[in-house]
Amino acid sequence: MNYNCRKKGGRAPVDIIDEASDEEEVRIHVPRSSQTYHHHTDYSSQVGSSGVSVRTTTIAIQPEPISAMNTQDPPSPPPEPTFYDTSSLLTGLSGLSFLDPDYTTPAEVAHGVEEGVRHPRPLSDHPLLVWTSQCEAFMAEILRLEAPASGIEQCHVCHADQGQYCCAMPFHKVEEWTGTYFKRMTLANLSLVIQLGHRLGQKCVLPAVIKSFVVIDVDGIHMVQMGFCNCTQSIERQVQLLRSHLWPATTIYPQTAATFHVLHLFQVLSFMSKVSAYEFYHTLACLLDNTGLYIPPDRYDTFLRIMREWCHLRSLKRFGRGHEPGRIAEMRPGELVLRCPACPHPHVNLPCGWNENLGKCWLYCLFLAVDANFRLCRLNVSNEDNDPSLNRGYGYFVEENSFRLFLEMYGKIIPVEEKSTCNNHDAVKLANSRGGQGAAATGVRAVVCGRHDMKRPLSVGDLQKGERYINMDYFVLSTLTCDTPPDLVISYDIACQWHKNLFVRISKYPTDLQPGQLEHNILYLVPKFHLPVHILKCCNDFSFNFSAKVGRTDGEAPERTWAATNALANSTKEMGPGSCQDTLDDHFRDYNWRKIVIMACAEHVAEFISYEDALQSKHADAIIQWHSMVLTWEQDRSQPNPFAPTLRPVTENAVCLELVREEKQETKIEIHHDVSPSEFIAQGLQLEEPQYVVQSHSTDLQRTRVQQQANRISHKIEAWIDVQKVYMPRTTLLHTRDDDRRAPGVEVHTSKIPLYLPSHALRLNAVQTNIQNTVIDDERWLRLTQAHDTLATLRDHLLLKLFSHGQHYGTKANVLMHRVETKIQADAAHYRRVYMALEAVSTALGWEEWKAGLSPLKAEDVHGLDSYNEATSEGQHTLSWIWKTNLQGGEKGLQEALHIEWCKSRMRAQRWQEECDLLTEEIRRVQVTFQYYSGMWKG
Length: 939
Description:
Elements: E1 15-18, E2 26-29, E3 37-47, E4 51-60, H1 86-89, H2 106-110, H3 127-133, H4 135-146, E5 174-177, E6 182-185, E7 193-195, E8 207-217, E9 220-229, H5 237-242, E10 246-248, E11 256-259, H6 260-273, H7 277-288, H8 300-318, E12 366-373, E13 378-379, H9 400-410, H10 426-429, E14 439-441, E15 443-449, E16 455-463, H11 469-480, E17 488-492, H12 495-498, H13 502-506, E18 522-525, H14 536-541, H15 557-565, H16 569-572, H17 577-593, H18 604-635, H19 652-666, H20 677-696, H21 703-727, H22 731-741, H23 758-764, H24 773-803, H25 811-845, H26 892-938
Helix pairs in contact: 8-17, 18-26, 19-25, 20-21, 20-24, 23-25, 24-25
């Protein structure tokens, strides 16, 4: 196709040549007079200084009579506007005040027009509302275009019949050669008229030509001449445009239209990039001329209105509302919603007798998550009368008039939010104080599918202030009217407060908002990410992790849906109420369309079995009792929570007393010369650790006390070395060698004096043959006991840190926690030294059995039983091996800690197993749902 139709000289007929044809050049010729030959300019170019090089082609054309479309007679003027009674045409919109025949505007009152006197209004004053009365006619034409026309195949690009012509593109940008440069020209200036109402090649005997018709297309905004058919059998003008794939701006004498292509392009582009209509429209305006010399007619407001009509009709078509007469008028609330196929829908995807199988009823539970988004606020622009929603409660937003009437009736009956019994949450504190001057809506609240992040029908609405309970109640109860199962799990940031007196408030609401669920069939939880900011009681009572039959659901689904729509905030905040709701409805529908179901794994089942096996030998009776406590609490939430600790936090004085007692014990060491080999090794082990203690405190401010302690230990080491000469005589050579290497007059620090215990000497590989096996064997058993004792001390300090979290944060508390943390790190370092010594003596003796209960201690292994302070989540938390080995646990604190961790480990295993069961059921429901809707369309 030759897109640049350029000519030289004066006016000439326009030929659009199809260069794709090999046999002949096919043209669309608009002659000015009868002629036999036409000289067509193929191209022209400047060649050096010699002039212009031009290539022309002479084409023979059969003369034909001048069509009526090309006569010089002016077209018949459009008839004068006729005034109608709007209330008789706009069925279903009688509630709007401006449609009242006796309605008088404030401007008319100001000019002395008497109120109450009937004043007829032209339909062109409200084109969007007039369009709603012809919505079914538009739908019929859209479906007609998709049907084959008389068996003739059509081009999918321009929809012209495939015959002699394949494409007819009247919106091309053309240029005129002036002799020195190409000048911008339009086909309308060249007398090209786009004829409607007839097939290509047929002439209209009575055309009505509009010489300044605006068409918005993907390559710009065009001014064309549009010829409407005015024959006896002609159809309405808007229908003529629709059948040419042009969407009319109005239904009364349209002067503007948009191509279906540009409407579909913007709709999909806005879904993917969230581009605004303003940016898109002005991009089109720059495509034809980016210099600013040619300014196209401003049709931005018209484009907005056309897009709303297009999106609304596309949604109606998507749900099959155009195949039966009257189906649009008979729609019920929530019908234009793409529902989650994985959620349970009675009468759609649940098996027969699903409500009778008590053991599997939890698989058919509906998960709902609620949240507010204050970024999607809206300014006080327009009103419901001038900008109503086209969906009117058929989609995701609730019906606005019914919602506002509900707020007026029950806003004063329902008491103000009670004082919070949890932390000072903004959602409760600012429930009645958000918003400001100029804001019509402070945000939106939505109810989504808690497992698959999909918007629910009749679940979205505007917020007038903050997160008031009455708004929350209405949105939740509205979506529950849409065919829901009896069991629910509702997740909400402040569920711990909102659920109180919920059914007391519900009892005051109208009957159409009464839910089919009983109070005891609803479980209220707090999303996992929001839970840590609640008090400890709420963390235990409203936790997903501690609740049975919820799988790995996190309750944070609304946050993910808001992330996909927040980019619309800059556009929607400037819209009127109806435009804003219809735009968000369209994007929510596309978001639901693109959702997928996630998968999970059951890795923690094996972890729970491992932990339970470790406890079984020492705490078999306790495990039976713990299991009974968990089952009782899962059936009745009013029973004691097995996940909540009952011991009071350790006080600061108690922690200080425990640390002082341990520090005194460290220096209480005595050396006796008349000792057995085992006593000799035991005394050496007692001296080894104080050396590291003195070394670790060598920079302490209390240098005097540290030095005195070092002196005492130094004397005891010298006495022990004298005994060592008896059992390990070759170590005398090692001590002598160390003295020789030391500079004269330099005093050695106590921490630097090597003891050369058997494990140390064996690692040096210097005196192995002179060490008695009895001494090595004694160290083996003493080291094994020392390793388990060190692990027990490490666990005690970790528990001390856990139960000290109840202290208020402050300088003294931070110093205390630092002391506890220092003890923990010292215990870990001590165990690593003991483990290294065990490896040395076991290698010499060929003994490997000790490794069955001990392992190398890594940094990530040193953590307590609590999980909120860990980097991983509760469901991903894996218990360290130090809590699974040699658990004696005689003290009450350790017993309770083990009990709570057993409950959590069991919980983690069950949640993953439940997730697998839920996913299996959801996959089945997805398949059944698709089969159901497939049968519905076929039927």
